[in-house]
Amino acid sequence: ASMKFFLQYVGFFCAFFSASFLIISTWTDCWMVNADDSLEVSTKCRGLWWECVTNVFDGIQTCDEYDSIYAEHSVKLVLTRAMMITADLLSGFGFLFLVLGLDCVKFLPDEPLIKLRICLVAGVMLLLAGLPGITGSVWYAVDVYVERSSLLFHNIFLGIQYKFGWSCWLGMAGSLGCFLSGSLLTCCTYLFRETSSGRFHSAYSLRKGYSSAATVVTNVHLPSSQTATSKMYAVDTRV
């Protein structure tokens, strides 16, 4: 039981931080950051929804949102948005299911098998969340790196060159955390499912034995008048 609680709590904290990292990564503005050391006046970051310029002297930040979501955007931007939003939803719902499946939460306390299945659903959702999260963040990072390398290879300088920033790293970390927490939860479910099933069946058999014993005791302590009446009724029925 202590190992089960340990795995659940490790999965809980890992799922919490992983879902938080994915959500923060999706809605922050530093997926790309300028990598030109000669530009010391400001730092420019690009996210999935807007880009911001921060003055290094006074710290003033100015952000410009991209055009409408229906406007034409690059395939990299549109697909990364879709994959990260999908990862956010799956990891968020997976974390909520996990909270309901914890043994310390007073939800269906007399149904250990149902709580284990809830943990299994949470683990599967977290595993699924890690797939679009890692795909979107890694693909975005590789695309930025390839674009920068091709410009350097052809000696093309556009004024600002980018490398992938901390938001992209946060998306990768959150995705890997989802894989880890999902694996822990699914392994925890399969590891302790048979134990819980055995306890459930033994408890059911024990309750059934108590019920049978109570019936026997009740029949034994029937008053003699009721027993005689039952015999007379049986005789009359046969006649």
From TrEMBL:
Superkingdom, according to UniProt?
Eukaryota
Does Metal-binding appear among the keywords? Answer: no
The protein's location, in the record's own words, is:
Cell junction, Tight junction; Cell membrane
Recite the UniProt keywords alphabetically: Cell junction, Cell membrane, Ion transport, Magnesium, Membrane, Tight junction, Transmembrane, Transmembrane helix, Transport
Catalysed reaction, written as an equation: Rb(+)(in) = Rb(+)(out); K(+)(in) = K(+)(out); Ca(2+)(in) = Ca(2+)(out); Li(+)(in) = Li(+)(out)
Cellular component, GO, one term: bicellular tight junction
Looking at the keywords, is Transmembrane helix present? yes
Q: Which Pfam families match?
A: PMP22_Claudin
- State the annotated membrane topology for this chain: Multi-pass membrane protein
Q: Which GO terms describe its biological process?
A: monoatomic ion transport; paracellular transport
TM regions (residue ranges): 7-27, 120-142, 169-192
Q: Which GO molecular function annotation, any one, does this entry have?
A: structural molecule activity
Q: Which PROSITE patterns match?
A: CLAUDIN
The family line of this record is: Belongs to the claudin family.
- Function according to Swiss-Prot or TrEMBL: Claudins function as major constituents of the tight junction complexes that regulate the permeability of epithelia. Forms paracellular channels: coassembles with CLDN19 into tight junction strands with cation-selective channels through the strands, conveying epithelial permeability in a process known as paracellular tight junction permeability. Involved in the maintenance of ion gradients along the nephron. In the thick ascending limb (TAL) of Henle's loop, facilitates sodium paracellular permeability from the interstitial compartment to the lumen, contributing to the lumen-positive transepithelial potential that drives paracellular magnesium and calcium reabsorption.
Protein name in UniProt: Claudin
